[in-house]
Every structure is written in C-alpha cells, then in structure tokens.
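Exercise 3.2. Students should predict the tertiary structure of the chain below and write it as structure tokens, then compare their answer with the key that follows.

Predict this chain's 3D structure.
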Amino acid sequence: MMNEQRKKIRKAILIGLAAVCILALMIFLIFLAVGFVEIISPNNSYAIEITGLSSLAVNGIATVMVPIPANVDGVPAMSEEVLTSRYQAFGWQTAVRETPCGKMLAFTTTDDYAPGISVSSGEFEKKEEPRLLVPVLATPDNMSVEEFSRTSGGTYTTVVFLDGFIPPPENATPITFNLRYQGGGGMKHLIKENVWTATVNATVPGTASGFIPVPAEYHVTPGGLYL
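Answer key:
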C-alpha cells in the first residue's frame, strides 16, 4: 500500500517536472522565434565637444573643422543632411567641406568670441561595413585604411583645423577636442554585427592654426550569435 502511494507521488512529480520542462521549452522557442525575425538597423552616433574656444577673439570669420564618420573609401557614414542640420551648434554655421585632406565637418562663426561647441546626434543606417573618423593621415605600420579598419583596433592619426582667430598670447587656454563616433550594432536573424568606435581626445595649443594632426583611437567590438 505504501509502495503504491510512493509510486503515485513519484509519478505526479515526474509529470509535473515534464510539464515545467515543456513550458520552459515553449517559452524559449517563442523568444527564439521573436529574436529570429527581429531586425535592428545599424546605428550611427557622433558626439562633438570642443572647449577653450571662448577665450579666442575672432578675426572676421573663424573656422573650426573636425573629422567625419566614413567608410574606408571616404564615403560619409552619415548623410550630409544630418551632419549639417542636426549639428548646428549655438553661434556657429555648419557645413561639410572638401579639404586637401578630405571631407570634414566645418563650423564657422562671425561672433566676436567663439562659443564652445557641444553637439551630438545620430541616425539608423543599412550598411554593414567598417567605418571610422576620417581623414586618416597615418595608420600603424603604414597599413592601408582598409587593412587597418579590419583589425581589432589601434591608434591612428586624423586631423582637426583652426583658422580665423586673432593670435592669442602664448599662455592662451588650450583647445580640447573630444569626439566620439560609434556605428554598427545591427542585428538580423540573431546575428549581431560588429560595433565600430572611433574617438579623439586631444588638446592643442590655443595658438595653433591650420591643419593639426591629432591621434585617434579605433576599436571594433566583434558581433556574432546573439541569444
């Protein structure tokens, strides 16, 4: 009698465990199905912060230029419309310019003193390709830009530009460029693409003028199966 009762209890426990396992499997399959059909477009975001400009007097028209996000062929990763319309900093006019180094994002002002620049924005993009801040003036071991873009990361040289300021004293406040671009990260059928990040954290003398080479950091976060 006791053995039969134990068998019934054991059977009930096994049935309960089986039901729980089936339920868990069904929930997992539902989430898997949702994830398989979910598509996330690659994202582009670019933040620009330039400080120290307010100590510089403008001589007519002042111009500050910074790199733009682009693929290895120099094609901008963000549309020119976004770069010119969403990156309107207070007191500045914004435009994409072709320079001897390549395309750059230009800020111009006619104010007596140049205000600091702090802007950020982004957009979704369908392309899945390496991208970084360009122009690229130099890469480690003289690799091509394409070769460098397919590494896991490293330090390369890009450029910023300053012009149109009245020459300040030698002890003028330095100009600090903090730029951060991040692109990619899209997902399709549970496969997440790489995330490409490029940053510039450089300080240049307040007396600097013209094209100024600065170091940039490039990093790739590998994608893969996303569960």
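Discussion points: The two ends are 49 Å apart (CA to CA). The chain has two domains: 1-37, 41-225.
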